[in-house]
Amino acid sequence: MSRKRKDTKIWHALRRFIVSAISLVAIAILINLAPNYEKSDLSGKINLIINNNNITKSLKNEILIENDKIYLSFDDTKNFFDEYLLLDGDKIIATSNTKTTSIPVNGGKVYENGSYRNIEYNIINQDNKYYLPLNILSSIYNFELNYNEDNKIITIDSLNRKLVTAISSKASNIKYKPTNLSKTVDKVERGETLYVLQNTESGKDEKEGKYLKVRTEDGVIGYIKESKLINKVAVRDDLEKEKIDGKIGLVWDYYNQYTAAPARTEQIKGADVVLPSFFELRSDGSLAVNIGNSGMNYINWTKQANLKVWPVLSNSMLNDLDAMSNILSTFETRANLIENIIDQLVKIDVDGIYIDFEDMYKDDKDNFSRFLIELAPRLREIGMTLSVLLTAPDGSDTWSLCYDRNLIGKVADYVVFMGYDENTGSSKTAGTVAGANWVELNIKKFLGQEGIDKDKIILAIPFYTRLWQETDGNLTSKVVNMKDVEIPNDAKVKWDENLKQTYIEYKRDNTVYKMWIEDEKSISAKLDLVQRYGLAGAGFWEKDREKENIWNIVEEKLK
């Protein structure tokens, strides 16, 4: 073979290689631009689209269709609609934004928001898995359901979410990606309504113009040129609960069951919400109510003073861990308590409730959480706020370990960290009621260890301290209100930078007196923590224990 022929042969081989390489690159580019040329692994399956997201691949179980009804498995309902869905013996307990519902798995009356009603439904038990009909779920979770049998697409749209529609101005192609090179996934005619997807990506090509991601009435999701849409309008807005602007100032107005509500007339600087002692829990789950004429006058004052009212519901009068356990133990006993709460709140027309349940068994932690899970929708239904007391983490079983703080932080509108009782009357050594270092340490635990949103945490601050007395090795103490603190002339006085408090010590006869003082400086330091960690606000235990000028500091620091 001549050298010339050999070179020609090599050149042809090289050319074929180059052409093949270019072809492969072109194919790769084409696939990248239009990946929907590949057959979808969801074709032929029933597709489920929830709020414009195709979640079919994430389903744990198949969707069932029987007798023209569509069924979703218990696990998938829990995953996509209700993380607190509970199988409780022979019933399923569902909670949504505004409904608490108990559904018997074997048929029967459905309990929903305090009343029983007859609903035609059937829960399927297949392979030891429960499947719930979507028509029931649509009522509970407030969504619109559509099923296109031709393309096997189920669409679910939450009715409390924003919805934007537009009209196709001409016959157009719906593209898989925001470019003309992408495959057409559907076609729309002039005048068809399209749902414009919010908070999703859009595309823009310098030559082609802007694309918007849309969903057709048949449930197909893709892209269309914005220039081909007219009459874009929001037909439904997000439903959001009204919240207090800025940092919240809470004030407890405590009085016992044998006394009347205080007669208030003055404004309280820096305050947004008052917490009067209206309700105590009885052992049968009913409420001991202390309102009367004085309470109604109090409520009238709050309206004039532009204050919101979250009455306190306390279990302190109960003083019985077993009775508390019984009240929380079943859906029925919890529902009874919830009905009592809702009836009272509606009757007196207030703005929310503050749940102050202390001293519970550690074993009742989950049942207390269930109580709040089931209470929250009922309060949202009537536009009221749920706030819950939480003690510092990592304490005793019945004081600290009886709360699932992370879950409560999700369910409640606000959690109130009791930022005092660092040392109590039963402490073995004298110490501060609320040192700034201890308060800050526990704020960090709430945010980190417990995973609670900072915008939900309200720091409760004491308007009192303790005077400790050590006599012959015996330790006692008594509560001293901030306004009643006195510093003897012969007392040793020292500022503690860690505690952000003034410490005093003096002696009378054979008794040594010690006190860590709450005053303008210590309160100011705690309010600085609210700002530093971006908390929702501060609360103050309790009205009439304070120095009058403390409200100037509260207003300055919070507002």
Give a structural overview:
It is a single chain. The protein is an alpha/beta fold and 559 residues long. The chain folds into three domains: 47-158, Copper Amine Oxidase, Chain A, domain 1, CATH 3.30.457.10; 163-236, SH3 Domains (SH3 type barrels, Roll); 248-462 and 518-558, Glycosidases (TIM Barrel). Helix content is 26%, strand content 32%. The strands form seven sheets. An eleven-stranded mixed sheet has the order 25-24-27-28-29-30-31-37-22-23-26, with helices on one face. Strands 14, 17, 18, 19, 20 and 21 form a six-stranded antiparallel sheet that branches. 34% of the residues are buried.
Roughly what is the average pLDDT, rounded to an integer? Answer: 91
The CATH homologous superfamily of the largest domain is termed Glycosidases
**Unreliably modeled segments:** 33-39
Structural domain count: 3
- How much helicity do the residues have? 25-40%
Q: From the 3D coordinates, which CATH architecture of the largest domain would you assign? A: Alpha-Beta Barrel
Number of strands: 37
What coarse outline follows from CA principal-axis ratios? elongated
Estimated share of beta-strand residues? 25-35%
As laid out across the biggest beta sheet, the strand order is 25-24-27-28-29-30-31-37-22-23-26
Figure out the total of helices: 11
What is the multimeric organization of the chains shown? single chain
CATH topology of the largest domain: TIM Barrel
The CATH class of the largest domain: Alpha Beta
Radius of gyration: 32 Å
Largest β-sheet summary? 11 strands, mixed
Instruction: Report the span from N to C terminus.
Output: 96 Å
Structural class: alpha/beta
